[in-house]
Amino acid sequence: MTDPGRVSSRTESTRVPVARAGNAGHWRRHGRALATWGVLLMAALAWLGAEFALGQATLVATYTIAGLGVIIIVGQAGQIVLGQGAFVALGAYAQALLVHAGVPALAALPLAAAVGALGGALASLPAGRLGGLYFGMSTLAFALIVEEGLVRWESLTQGAAGMLVPAFALGGWRADTPLAQAGVSLAAVLVAFGLCARLLRSRIGRAWQAVREDEAAAAACGIAPAAAKLRAFVVGGSLSGLAGGLYAHWIGFISPEQFGLVFSFELLMLAFIGGARQLAGAAWGALVVVAMPQAIAVLRDTLPGDWARAAGLELVLFGAVIVAVILLRPQGLARAP
Amino acid sequence: MLSLLQVLSSGIAIGCVYGLVALSFVLIYKATATVSFMQGDLLMVGGFAGLALHLAAGWPLAFAVLGAVLAVALLGAGLERVVLRRALGQPHLVAVLLTFGLGMMLRGGVASVPAAAQDMYRLPFATDTVALGALVVAASHLWVVCATVVLMLLLAAFFHFSRAGLALRACAEDARMAALMGVPVARMHTLAWALGAGLAAVAGLLLAPITFVHLNMGFIALKAFPAAVLGGLSSLPGALAGGIFIGVVEAMAGLLLPEGAKDVVPYVLLMAALLLFPQGLGGGRLGGGGR
Q1: Are B51 and B250 in contact (CB under 8 A)?
Q2: Chain B, nearest residue to A127 by Cα
Q3: CA distances from residue A337 to A20, A69, A208 in whole angstroms, order as listed
Q4: Could you tell me which chain A residue has the CA closest to the CA of B276?
Q5: Residue (of A173, A168, A150, A139) closest to A247 by Cα position
Q6: Which residues cross the membrane (chain A) (predicted)?
Q7: Which residues of chain A have pLDDT under 50?
């Protein structure tokens, strides 16, 4: 192995796959991915019309950021999270309240992410010593508490009636056209991807992977598994909080029920469909999760007979997609690098 | 004092339902290492199956109830054979998503029946009240408690004295070892799912006179998770005790705490229990019967 990209210190030798590809290969791969997504966006613009396609692109980008949080927790650190929707909700409500209080939207976003991170830490704390399924239980309980809290704390959140959120504003400029919104969310996605990729190559990211593969071995190598897991939930929570902050602006109206259990499972499904082992999985999963309700609606309209109009068909199809994906493509859509 | 007793009795009754669902969850989890997120949907299907057999098909109530439980048990066994078997040995999340998806399909399937989607129904039994001295108890609550006690005794007998029950316990203890001892492990998994689904259906039928039968009655199964965790996630009597505890505390919270606290209390208890009693409230000592 006389690859010039390879550094000879021991800690660096775990980087072989990255190092072998070299910096040039790295950028070529990124370039190809960006090109693929660019082509997809162009096709959508041509096919669906600019306004609709840009709106959907905004949604896909926002879901991607939220999904990155799941991918960090589930795919990288190998833990279970069943209440990711709550972190998004916390971010969304934090953003809405801060903007209403007069904080500039751009300054509020990091705070929304911080609230999401705090949520991640709180949700995972009770199960910190136990791990595994207990993380699922405690995050699920946390999500149900948050949802109920948002409904009941009416003086702050206006309860189940929900609250309006003003458009994303930056100085005098307001992101109220689909193009501007898509631009802001694409920029946010790129930043989130960059940060995550950097994090995964760092000590923290390697600790996650080590804990995922074998906790005892990781501990024997001097990694503190409990701390690594907590960090995963903090980072995952902050990403979802950031997504929530953006989502609040795009939708313009938030209510507790939007972020319920079904949303949490949608995000889990997103990670599974895309493939939780790669960051790129978040984008592919988001595309499918955003497109699916529309595809189902189209399918419903084309199916003959009255039974297709029945209320339950959508649920059946949605459930069938989950089952089919889990059974047929357990590795997800994104290819292994 | 009387109102306290009144609240207590209804708390115990609803707690028994939580406990039964938690029991079905823990049974499946212990025997097959599969986390089931569809117990609530099985519960709902059980309620509707009883309803359909009694009201639509005209069976006598007792037969309809028995038929509904058997049908849902068969459904559980069938799903295990066809789908859930694939989740064996995979990360927990695979089973969680699979069962969530299947649960959605069940809910959607029931919702496609127009008569089921629109109304709330009541199974015509246990609609009156019983006076025990000064205490007035809903007959449905008494039914729940009695049925739970009988079921527990039956289950304990099954796990201790029958060949299949012993095999199931061996399988839950150590599947590899059980296989080496000649236990048909795959068949035991099917049996565990049939039992778990059947128990959920029983819970649904017992719930029918209390909360009516409707499409979203399955959400009550979420309260079974705190119950299971309080029981330590591995003990069947612990799950039942956890359920009753949750039911009672919840009823008390409804009486003493401000509105809305009642719905949060079980989940706060779950998080507190994980923090303070990670082995469950019994610390493993409760786990005699179904282990």
Answers
A1: no
A2: B274
A3: 12, 20, 18
A4: A126
A5: A168
A6: 34-54, 60-90, 97-121, 127-146, 179-200, 232-252, 311-328
A7: 1-21, 336-337
Q: What is the dihedral of CA A248, A252, A253, A256, to 10 degrees?
A: -10
The tally of CA atoms less than 13 A away on the side-chain side of residue A224 is 6
Share of chain A above pLDDT 70, in %: 87
- What token pair was written down for A221? 């190598």
Interface ipTM: 0.87
**Tokens (6 digits) for A44:** 């959508």
Average confidence score pLDDT of chain B: 86
For residue A118, count CB atoms less than 10 angstroms from its CB and return exposed for 0-12, middle for 13-18, buried for 19 or more: middle
| Rounded CA separation A232/A225 (Å) | 10
pLDDT in tens, B149-181: 999 999 999 999 999 999 998 888 888 888 898
Full DSSP string of A265-309: HHHHHHHHHH-TTSTHHHHHHHHHHHHHHHHHHHHHHHS-SSGGG
Residue keyed to tokens 């990360």:
B91
Please report residues of B whose CB lies closer than 8 A to that of A132.
92
Interface of A with B in 183-222 (CB under 8 A): none
Domain segments of chain A: what residues? 32-260
A182 touches chain B (CB under 8 A): no
